[in-house]
Amino acid sequence: MVSGARFDDVGLPGAAFHDVNLAEALFEDVNLSNARFDDVNLSGARFDNVNLSGATIRGARLVDVSLDGDIRGLRVWGVDVVPLIDAELNRRQPGREKMRPTDANGYREAWALLERLWPETIARARALPPELLHESVDGEWSFIETLRHLVFATDAWVLRTVLGEQSPWDPLDLPHDEMHDTPPVPRDRTVRPSLDEVLVLRADRMGKVRAIIAELTDERLAERTTPVAEPGYPASDSYLVDDCLSCILGEEWEHRQYAERDLAVLETS
């Protein structure tokens, strides 16, 4: 019986666990690639930032299961359900289909839509007591943390990669939780800046993206960025401009959806 156990710095490749109770155990930064699970009870389990690429699940009992993330080629009873889900999400979230542009004009259209939508979300947040904007809903980032993360994403994928700034970071930048500490990228979860403080940063970063997209050409999208010399995130490498800007569109769209979802909960608290 090892209920609630935690395993740190243990190497057990090829180990077998038979008739073992691991209820409430914590597996963090663990490699289970090519592992096999037979007659395993995972009811109530929570998986955050897991890589299930190439996984095969047979004879599963999936009742009231929630699944989100980078999902491609998901087959249920032999049917690729991702296109069906994609179509339904596009129906529920008008404009979502514009977040995957294939040319410069498509980027301009997508960015203009984001700039129209975000003020509505900000106005909704302003209607709440300021302290609620620091509250987490179901373990997710608070509204302020979400905005801080978007500042980080822009610093990483636009200022650092596309514009070539060596160290574009602001002390309020907030990287994704699964990213390892990467000096000199800041990560301070204890600060509680006001909404207006973070919006000043957001306005600056969104203005820089706006300027890039206004001058964007199809040829520029196909170019690769010049690696920066200083350490940071992403790694000093060359990236397609298209990939960098596509990342920002995805971040902006998805995190606004998350924010709207959580604001709805906070409004009833």
From TrEMBL:
It comes from the Bacteria. InterPro entries: 5peptide_repeat (IPR001646), DinB-like (IPR024775), DinB/YfiT-like (IPR034660). Residues 114-258 form the DinB-like domain. Pfam families: DinB_2, Pentapeptide_3. This is DinB family protein.
